[in-house]
Amino acid sequence: MKTRKEAIAACMDLPFVYEDYPFHDENWTVMRHRENQKTFALIFEHAEKMMINVKAEPQAAELWRQVFPSVIPAYHMNKTHWISIILDGTMPDEEIIRLIGDSYRLTAARPKKSRKTE
Fold this sequence. Notes:
Number of strands: 6
Helix content: 25-40%
Strand order of the largest sheet: 1-2-3-4-6-5
Number of helices: 3
Order of helices and strands: HEEEEHEEH
Strand content: 25-35%
């Protein structure tokens, strides 16, 4: 995966998502859940590299950064909970898709707790 188009397509394969451009800047593509409007991926070009930011569990994020040089602390996001993936073709597409799916699940709406009436 090397292009914005490929990254968007990978995100759009997930159910009930949409593509957004809230910053009025075509460089920033934000992928969101339809039901809660939460962001699960940001696709952008920085320093002449196409990148995608995804949410990750902190321990998993650290592991991904150790395994793949193309996974770095997230650009312009919380570095503990988000990672940037440089889309340069060095990381297998299956792994990128897995991380997009993880981010999707981490940002999905939580089931509401039922209130007990007494």
